[in-house]
Design a protein that fits this description.
The protein has about 450 residues and is mainly alpha-helical. Helices cover about 80% and strands about 0% of the residues. The chain is built from 21 helices and no strands. The protein has helices at about 1-20, 40-50, 55-80, 85-90, 90-105, 110-120, 120-130, 140-165, 170-195, 200-225, 230-235, 240-265, 270-290, 295-315, 325-335, 345-360, 360-365, 370, 375, 380-400, 410-440.
């Protein structure tokens, strides 16, 4: 373990030096986090091996992830000033093209696009770090860039398929709505970044309305062959459980807004424990949805992610009428990680809790998912909502023994493990109860 730690530290230092030479400012007080650059592709690849019933779209994601994995490794090699690295960077794109064309059979143009996406990964990471200075580490920028590349490539494939075959199942329709909506938000964000004149209120809101009513809704109408707004309303009114969930989520959202407003009025900087209360709130929001209405929760996660990104855009642009209020909330809840121009912490929380739902859409569409796949779907909540929160709160309250070389405490780690195991046992008991209930049905 000591050898691995020394190798990681050495590689992190090389990457930091390389980025410094490129005049790139990463998040201060944090290491490069090179291990994160392998996290998302590895999770997707491992997921395909552990679940044999994956969709064609997921298999395409695996092929692209293999290329991104190779390019990530070569980027780290570049920081060592390896002489052969310029030639080696051609290998992952070529491999990605061959995999997509011969194995996934996505066609020549999509295969070329996949190879280009793999090749452009390194430059895209540098561009992102330069666009939001001091907001990200190299590892965080890698994860975001990989997620964006995978999102754009898979959305393109998905929308082409949807053009010829309208979705039937709830999760598939929700996916299309999420994809087109997030594409619209990406269009608004990139336009305001490259065209400063769009950062004034009138042009900005005109652009937003134009994208919503000129692109998102009409395009969804064509793809779904029905009005997307009416489809969402019908889903909300489909049964009593969904209606109760909506009311419950509105109450939770209201409590969150009141908590933020109370902190702003008090004028005191929020402590770590106070910030972790929002993790607990996320657990309370997600668990009923996963257990009872997974498809509706799946759609809601995409809507809320878009809302969080949209609000952050309004805050960064200081866009009236909510820009100043959002900035005030950011000031009292910001911690040492939020020193850059953009606050990624709320996005990380939302994405971390939702990622299992996004990766395994086929699982969440099954009628008996709550009995067989409840634990995998809640893995994000277990790690972030339960484990991280318990470690932080108990580590602050009773933590005394520090792990070597860190600020983390042994007591916090034990509390994290115990709380996660407790929830797992409760989920197992719930799953067994559901299974027995189905067996007793005539």
């Amino acid at each position: 373990m000591d050898v691995i730690e020394r190798m990681l530290d050495y590689s992190n230092q090389h990457v930091q030096i390389y980025l410094h030479e490129e005049q790139i400012s990463t998040r201060p007080g944090a290491s490069a986090g090179i291990w994160m650059s392998f996290l998302l592709p590895t999770a997707i690849i491992v997921g395909s091996n552990s679940n044999h019933d994956v969709s064609e779209l997921y298999e395409i994601a695996v092929s692209l992830s293999l290329g991104l994995l190779g390019t990530s490794a070569l980027f780290i090699a570049r920081s060592y000033k390896c002489r052969t690295q310029d030639y080696a960077f051609v290998i992952p794109p070529v491999f990605t093209y061959i995999q997509l064309f011969f194995y996934n059979k996505v066609g020549v143009w999509f295969s070329i696009a996949g190879g280009f996406a793999s090749y452009s990964f390194s430059e895209a990471v540098i561009f992102l770090l330069d666009a939001v200075p001091k907001s990200l580490t190299y590892g965080e920028a890698s994860v975001l860039t990989q997620a964006l590349i995978l999102f754009l490539f898979l959305v393109a494939n998905s929308l082409v398929n949807t053009w010829y075959n309208a979705p039937i199942h709830c999760v598939n329709t929700s996916s299309v709505i999420m994809q087109v909506g997030l594409l619209g938000l990406l269009l608004i964000s990139t336009t305001t970044y490259f065209f400063p004149q769009m950062r004034r209120p009138l042009p900005f809101y005109s652009l937003t309305l134009g994208v919503i009513f000129g692109f998102v809704i009409p395009f969804l109408q064509i793809l779904l062959q029905e009005n997307p707004v009416l489809w969402i309303v019908q889903l909300m009114l489909s049964n009593t459980t969904v209606g109760l969930l909506v009311i419950y989520w509105v109450i939770c959202s209201g409590l969150a807004v009141l908590a933020v407003n109370f902190q702003i009025q008090g004028g005191e900087q929020a402590s770590t424990m106070i910030r972790k209360y929002f993790h607990i709130l996320a657990v309370l929001v997600f668990i009923p949805g996963i257990i009872r209405e997974c498809c509706f929760l799946y759609l809601a996660t995409g809507v809320v992610l878009g809302l969080i990104i949209g609000l952050e855009l309004l805050r960064v642009l200081n866009m009236p009428p909510v820009g100043e209020a959002l900035q005030a909330g950011f000031k009292v809840f910001a911690d040492e990680k939020d020193v850059g121009s953009i606050a990624f912490t709320p996005i990380y929380l939302m994405a971390g809790c939702s990622l299992p739902l996004w990766l395994y859409t086929s699982v969440s569409s099954e009628e008996n998912y709550a009995g067989q796949h409840l634990l995998p779907l809640m893995s994000g909540l277990l790690t972030i909502g339960i484990g991280d929160t318990a470690a932080s709160i108990f580590g602050t309250l009773i933590g005394k023994t520090k792990w070597k070389g860190t600020k983390k405490t042994v007591e916090g780690t034990l509390a994290s493990i115990i709380c996660q195991m407790t929830l797992i046992l409760m989920l197992v008991y719930f799953a067994l109860g559901r299974s027995k209930g189905r067996k007793r049905e005539p």
